[in-house]
Input
Amino acid sequence: MAHLGAVKALQEQGIGFDRIAGTSAGAFVGALLGNGYSPDEILKMVEAMPFLRYVRPAFTRMGLLRLDRLEQLIRPFFPDDRFEALKIPLHVVATDLNAGELVVFEEGELVRPVLASCCLPGIFEPYRINRRQYVDGGVLNNMPVEVIENKVDFVVGVHCNPFGLQKPISSIKGVLERSLILAVQSKTKERFSKCNLLIEPPELSRFDVFDLRRAREIFRVGYQHVHSLEKTVASLMALPNPQG
Output
Protein backbone atom coordinates (compact mmCIF):
# COMPACT_ATOMS: atom_id res chain seq x y z
CA MET A 1 0.00 0.00 0.00
CA ALA A 2 2.90 2.35 0.70
CA HIS A 3 4.29 1.61 -2.77
CA LEU A 4 0.96 2.70 -4.26
CA GLY A 5 0.76 5.94 -2.29
CA ALA A 6 4.31 6.81 -3.29
CA VAL A 7 3.64 6.11 -6.97
CA LYS A 8 0.46 8.20 -6.96
CA ALA A 9 2.36 11.19 -5.51
CA LEU A 10 5.14 10.78 -8.09
CA GLN A 11 2.60 10.65 -10.91
CA GLU A 12 1.01 13.86 -9.62
CA GLN A 13 4.46 15.43 -9.89
CA GLY A 14 4.62 14.46 -13.55
CA ILE A 15 6.80 11.37 -13.18
CA GLY A 16 6.04 8.21 -15.14
CA PHE A 17 7.81 4.86 -15.36
CA ASP A 18 9.27 2.97 -18.32
CA ARG A 19 10.27 -0.18 -16.44
CA ILE A 20 9.49 -1.80 -13.05
CA ALA A 21 11.46 -4.25 -10.90
CA GLY A 22 9.90 -5.61 -7.74
CA THR A 23 10.27 -8.05 -4.89
CA SER A 24 7.41 -9.40 -2.76
CA ALA A 25 4.72 -6.69 -2.34
CA GLY A 26 6.66 -4.63 -4.86
CA ALA A 27 6.23 -7.42 -7.41
CA PHE A 28 2.47 -7.60 -6.79
CA VAL A 29 2.01 -3.82 -7.01
CA GLY A 30 4.36 -3.64 -9.99
CA ALA A 31 2.32 -6.21 -11.89
CA LEU A 32 -0.92 -4.30 -11.34
CA LEU A 33 0.65 -0.95 -12.25
CA GLY A 34 2.27 -2.54 -15.27
CA ASN A 35 -1.12 -3.80 -16.38
CA GLY A 36 -2.49 -0.26 -16.50
CA TYR A 37 -4.35 0.06 -13.19
CA SER A 38 -3.99 3.34 -11.30
CA PRO A 39 -2.83 3.46 -7.64
CA ASP A 40 -6.35 4.46 -6.52
CA GLU A 41 -7.90 1.58 -8.47
CA ILE A 42 -5.46 -0.90 -6.95
CA LEU A 43 -6.12 0.41 -3.44
CA LYS A 44 -9.85 -0.19 -3.86
CA MET A 45 -9.21 -3.63 -5.36
CA VAL A 46 -6.98 -4.70 -2.48
CA GLU A 47 -9.38 -3.38 0.15
CA ALA A 48 -12.13 -5.51 -1.42
CA MET A 49 -10.02 -8.68 -1.74
CA PRO A 50 -10.96 -11.40 0.79
CA PHE A 51 -7.33 -12.53 1.22
CA LEU A 52 -7.90 -14.59 4.35
CA ARG A 53 -10.57 -16.69 2.64
CA TYR A 54 -8.04 -17.72 0.00
CA VAL A 55 -5.03 -18.34 2.24
CA ARG A 56 -5.29 -21.80 3.78
CA PRO A 57 -3.31 -23.59 6.49
CA ALA A 58 -0.33 -25.63 5.35
CA PHE A 59 -0.47 -29.15 6.75
CA THR A 60 3.27 -29.57 6.39
CA ARG A 61 6.35 -28.49 8.32
CA MET A 62 7.43 -26.02 5.64
CA GLY A 63 5.20 -23.07 6.55
CA LEU A 64 2.09 -21.97 8.40
CA LEU A 65 0.02 -21.03 5.35
CA ARG A 66 -0.28 -21.81 1.64
CA LEU A 67 -0.59 -19.32 -1.22
CA ASP A 68 -1.75 -21.58 -4.04
CA ARG A 69 -5.47 -20.66 -3.83
CA LEU A 70 -4.62 -16.97 -4.20
CA GLU A 71 -4.17 -17.67 -7.91
CA GLN A 72 -7.97 -17.78 -8.19
CA LEU A 73 -8.26 -14.38 -6.53
CA ILE A 74 -5.58 -12.62 -8.58
CA ARG A 75 -6.01 -14.10 -12.07
CA PRO A 76 -9.12 -12.03 -12.98
CA PHE A 77 -6.96 -8.89 -12.87
CA PHE A 78 -4.64 -10.39 -15.49
CA PRO A 79 -6.84 -11.80 -18.29
CA ASP A 80 -3.71 -12.34 -20.36
CA ASP A 81 -1.40 -14.07 -17.86
CA ARG A 82 1.88 -13.11 -19.54
CA PHE A 83 4.65 -10.63 -18.82
CA GLU A 84 4.56 -9.71 -22.49
CA ALA A 85 0.95 -8.44 -22.16
CA LEU A 86 1.86 -5.76 -19.61
CA LYS A 87 1.89 -2.11 -20.67
CA ILE A 88 5.11 -1.50 -18.69
CA PRO A 89 7.94 -4.10 -18.74
CA LEU A 90 8.17 -5.85 -15.37
CA HIS A 91 10.94 -7.85 -13.68
CA VAL A 92 9.91 -10.02 -10.71
CA VAL A 93 12.51 -11.35 -8.29
CA ALA A 94 12.12 -14.59 -6.27
CA THR A 95 14.49 -16.89 -4.38
CA ASP A 96 14.97 -20.44 -5.65
CA LEU A 97 15.37 -22.53 -2.49
CA ASN A 98 16.63 -25.56 -4.38
CA ALA A 99 19.43 -23.78 -6.20
CA GLY A 100 20.04 -21.21 -3.48
CA GLU A 101 19.98 -18.37 -5.98
CA LEU A 102 18.01 -15.36 -7.12
CA VAL A 103 15.75 -15.80 -10.13
CA VAL A 104 14.40 -12.94 -12.25
CA PHE A 105 11.09 -13.65 -14.00
CA GLU A 106 10.40 -11.35 -16.95
CA GLU A 107 8.74 -13.44 -19.65
CA GLY A 108 6.08 -16.12 -19.93
CA GLU A 109 3.43 -16.63 -17.26
CA LEU A 110 2.99 -13.80 -14.78
CA VAL A 111 0.70 -14.64 -11.84
CA ARG A 112 2.59 -17.57 -10.35
CA PRO A 113 6.01 -15.82 -10.35
CA VAL A 114 4.40 -12.84 -8.60
CA LEU A 115 3.01 -15.15 -5.90
CA ALA A 116 6.39 -16.87 -5.58
CA SER A 117 8.03 -13.49 -4.98
CA CYS A 118 5.49 -12.76 -2.20
CA CYS A 119 6.09 -16.06 -0.38
CA LEU A 120 7.45 -15.00 3.04
CA PRO A 121 9.54 -17.93 4.36
CA GLY A 122 8.28 -19.39 7.61
CA ILE A 123 4.89 -17.75 7.12
CA PHE A 124 4.04 -19.38 3.78
CA GLU A 125 4.94 -22.79 2.44
CA PRO A 126 7.44 -22.48 -0.47
CA TYR A 127 5.66 -21.86 -3.77
CA ARG A 128 6.21 -24.44 -6.52
CA ILE A 129 6.79 -23.59 -10.18
CA ASN A 130 8.00 -26.33 -12.54
CA ARG A 131 9.09 -28.52 -9.59
CA ARG A 132 11.21 -25.72 -8.10
CA GLN A 133 10.48 -24.26 -4.66
CA TYR A 134 10.45 -20.48 -4.37
CA VAL A 135 10.24 -18.01 -1.49
CA ASP A 136 10.27 -14.24 -1.17
CA GLY A 137 12.85 -12.57 -3.39
CA GLY A 138 13.73 -10.31 -0.47
CA VAL A 139 15.69 -13.17 1.11
CA LEU A 140 18.49 -12.45 -1.38
CA ASN A 141 17.54 -9.05 -2.84
CA ASN A 142 14.88 -6.78 -1.37
CA MET A 143 15.79 -3.86 -3.63
CA PRO A 144 16.41 -5.31 -7.12
CA VAL A 145 18.08 -2.24 -8.60
CA GLU A 146 20.62 -4.29 -10.58
CA VAL A 147 17.85 -5.78 -12.70
CA ILE A 148 17.07 -2.44 -14.34
CA GLU A 149 19.90 -0.02 -13.56
CA ASN A 150 21.50 -0.44 -16.99
CA LYS A 151 18.15 -0.23 -18.79
CA VAL A 152 16.93 3.14 -17.51
CA ASP A 153 18.32 6.67 -17.01
CA PHE A 154 16.82 7.36 -13.57
CA VAL A 155 16.13 4.87 -10.76
CA VAL A 156 13.45 5.48 -8.13
CA GLY A 157 13.68 3.06 -5.20
CA VAL A 158 10.75 2.60 -2.81
CA HIS A 159 11.72 0.82 0.41
CA CYS A 160 8.87 -0.08 2.74
CA ASN A 161 10.75 -1.70 5.64
CA PRO A 162 12.49 1.26 7.29
CA PHE A 163 15.29 0.40 9.68
CA GLY A 164 14.56 1.77 13.11
CA LEU A 165 12.72 1.10 16.31
CA GLN A 166 9.82 -1.26 15.85
CA LYS A 167 6.91 -1.82 18.16
CA PRO A 168 7.31 -4.72 20.64
CA ILE A 169 7.22 -8.20 19.14
CA SER A 170 4.66 -10.45 20.81
CA SER A 171 3.95 -13.37 18.46
CA ILE A 172 5.63 -16.08 16.38
CA LYS A 173 4.52 -14.24 13.26
CA GLY A 174 6.15 -11.08 14.54
CA VAL A 175 9.40 -12.91 15.26
CA LEU A 176 9.46 -14.37 11.74
CA GLU A 177 8.67 -11.04 10.09
CA ARG A 178 11.27 -9.11 12.06
CA SER A 179 13.91 -11.83 11.56
CA LEU A 180 13.43 -11.69 7.79
CA ILE A 181 13.75 -7.90 7.78
CA LEU A 182 16.96 -8.07 9.83
CA ALA A 183 18.39 -10.78 7.59
CA VAL A 184 18.03 -8.69 4.43
CA GLN A 185 18.66 -5.18 5.72
CA SER A 186 22.46 -5.02 5.31
CA LYS A 187 22.36 -6.04 1.65
CA THR A 188 19.46 -3.68 1.01
CA LYS A 189 21.34 -0.70 2.42
CA GLU A 190 24.15 -1.36 -0.05
CA ARG A 191 21.69 -0.87 -2.90
CA PHE A 192 20.32 2.44 -1.67
CA SER A 193 23.26 4.29 -3.22
CA LYS A 194 22.28 2.95 -6.65
CA CYS A 195 18.98 4.83 -6.53
CA ASN A 196 18.82 8.35 -7.95
CA LEU A 197 15.82 8.90 -5.67
CA LEU A 198 15.25 6.78 -2.57
CA ILE A 199 11.82 6.81 -0.93
CA GLU A 200 11.61 5.30 2.56
CA PRO A 201 8.72 6.64 4.69
CA PRO A 202 9.90 6.35 8.33
CA GLU A 203 6.31 6.17 9.61
CA LEU A 204 5.96 2.69 8.12
CA SER A 205 7.80 1.28 11.14
CA ARG A 206 4.47 1.62 12.99
CA PHE A 207 2.79 -1.02 10.84
CA ASP A 208 2.94 -4.80 10.49
CA VAL A 209 3.38 -6.71 7.24
CA PHE A 210 -0.20 -8.00 7.50
CA ASP A 211 -1.96 -4.76 8.55
CA LEU A 212 -4.48 -5.15 5.72
CA ARG A 213 -7.23 -3.33 7.63
CA ARG A 214 -5.05 -0.22 7.68
CA ALA A 215 -4.41 -0.29 3.94
CA ARG A 216 -5.75 3.21 3.30
CA GLU A 217 -3.74 4.66 6.19
CA ILE A 218 -0.53 3.02 4.91
CA PHE A 219 -1.31 4.26 1.39
CA ARG A 220 -1.58 7.80 2.79
CA VAL A 221 1.78 7.50 4.58
CA GLY A 222 3.54 6.70 1.29
CA TYR A 223 1.64 9.44 -0.53
CA GLN A 224 2.31 12.20 2.01
CA HIS A 225 5.98 11.28 2.39
CA VAL A 226 6.65 11.64 -1.34
CA HIS A 227 4.82 14.97 -1.45
CA SER A 228 7.07 16.16 1.38
CA LEU A 229 10.00 15.46 -0.97
CA GLU A 230 8.51 17.44 -3.85
CA LYS A 231 11.31 20.03 -4.04
CA THR A 232 13.97 17.31 -3.90
CA VAL A 233 12.23 15.33 -6.63
CA ALA A 234 11.89 18.41 -8.84
CA SER A 235 15.58 19.31 -8.48
CA LEU A 236 16.69 15.75 -9.28
CA MET A 237 14.47 15.51 -12.34
CA ALA A 238 15.81 18.84 -13.60
CA LEU A 239 19.31 17.42 -13.95
CA PRO A 240 20.27 17.05 -17.64
CA ASN A 241 21.83 13.62 -17.12
CA PRO A 242 20.79 11.99 -13.79
CA GLN A 243 23.17 9.04 -14.16
CA GLY A 244 26.11 11.31 -15.03
The mean pLDDT is 88.
